[in-house]
Amino acid sequence: MLVIVDSGGANLASVRFALERLGVRGTLTADPAAIRSAERVILPGVGSAIAGMKRLRAKGLVGCVRGLTQPVLGICLGMQLLFEQSEEGSTPTLGLIPGQVVKLPESPGITVPHMGWNTISPARAVGLLDGIAPEARFYFVHSFAAPVNAFTVAACQHGAPFAAIAQRGNFSGVQFHPERSGPAGARLLQNFVEGRV
Amino acid sequence: MLARRIIPCLDVRDGRVVKGTQFREHEVVGDIIALARRYRDEGADELVFYDITASSDGRTVSTDWVARVARVLDIPFCVAGGIRSLDRARAILHAGADKISINSPALENPALIGELAAEFGSQCVVVGIDSRQEAGDWFVKQYTGDPDKTQSTRWRTVDWAREAQQLGAGEIVLNCMNQDGMRQGYDLTQLKLVRAVLHLPLVASGGAGSMAHFSDVFRLAGVDGALAASVFHKGTIKIPTLKQQLIADGIPIRP
Predict the structure, then answer these.
(1) Do A141 and B1 touch (CB under 8 A)?
(2) Three-state SS at B156
(3) How would you class B41 by CB atoms within 10 Å of its CB: exposed for 0-12, middle for 13-18, buried for 19 or more?
(4) Any catalytic annotation for residue A106?
(5) How far is the C-alpha of B80 from the C-alpha of B101, rounded, in Å?
(6) Among residues B130, B187, B216, B224, which one is catalytic?
(7) Residue A107 CB: number of other CB atoms within 10 A?
(8) What is the pLDDT tens value at each position of chain A, 197 positions in all?
(9) How close B20 comes to chain A (CA, Å)?
């Protein structure tokens, strides 16, 4: 069973629909027992880190998510929450991947939010990218991002480099929206669903 | 490198896609879902759905078709039309839209921009600006969905764009009304002026008639996205051909 954590954020429907297009049913739930017993877990999220952590706390899910041992995929804000802290309101986050999420720097010709289709540079081979062309573009929309470090699987460049995909143990995160990234995004979700992480 | 975006715009009235000229004389061009699928398959980078009657009628868009669109699309889409409250925005985002765009309601209540950004994040708050040239400058118009209800505002376009950015908008769509439906090219002068005061993504709207117009607006006005309706609806410009041409022109584009 695949579970989508109902963290109350706004892109829950689009993640669920993307899984439906792959013929996979994602159960949307905030029940810690259901999340713990799931085969795989998706942690979606849009909006601010403060609001995202507040929602997880309000639903009593912080400890639950931190303790998961099955494959977990954080998407967009869901990825950012996997890190230690967000500069957005100096919010402590889940602390599952080392690093602090910071605001993307603005500069001439570099607009923030980083919004649109960008390429990524894989740092190492991972199952999530199986069957995806190296020049594939993914849809990003965010103003904050995680740093490139030892846990970066693929980096993206927008004014400065940042982590597009990060992974530590069973926790993976993607800064872009695979559910809105055309066939490449669908393939990434399929890889996750089929256990290629 | 971040790709420039090609964005077909679907004006929705009573559940059908329509198109007018200079915001008048609307004709039905097709079914929402059929057009959404077509543009997805042709390689559109994003879609915008404007319920053009919603603001001027005091109505809001139904979330029913938003969810139907969200089911079929694997590219992002934005919904606009009479969104006046956090609850309304939430309903549309929860139905599966990636962004909401506010235009007249932002002019009525500028604080709404910041409230939406605080609740959902700036990245999903688009401010649409309908702008018309008058006496050597550009001014913001309101309630443009119905010509009989269209009003002038006190805002110069450049000032309102800057204000919207400061209040927390995540993107600006500038509808150049003089050019709308004329197919004579985007208003490069105006777009350059607005680009210069923004660090946000800027999307050009109004005036696309040829592939060269897209190339010009990316190269000369520095916009992040180019929105068009009739040239795509009528098949005058095919998105795959347009994208090939833009790539040949050296513009970063998702093939």
Answers:
(1) no
(2) strand
(3) exposed
(4) no
(5) 5
(6) B130
(7) 12
(8) 999 999 876 678 899 999 999 999 999 999 999 999 999 999 998 778 888 899 899 999 999 999 999 999 999 999 999 999 999 888 899 999 999 999 999 888 899 999 999 999 999 999 999 999 999 999 999 999 999 999 999 999 999 999 999 999 999 999 999 999 999 999 999 999 999 99
(9) 28
Domain with residue A135: its CATH number is 3.40.50.880
Choosing from A64, A76, A156, A158, the catalytic residue is A76
Domain that holds residue A88: 2-193
Residues, chain B: 255
Pairing of strands A97-103, A121-122: unpaired
B229 DSSP 8-state letter: S
A120 touches chain B (CB under 8 A): no
- Indicate yes or no: pTM above 0.90: yes
Residue type, A135: E
A158 belongs to the catalytic site: no
Give chain A's domain count: 1
Chain A residues within 8 A of B6 when measuring between CB atoms = none
User: What pairs with residue A107 in β-bridges?
Assistant: A110
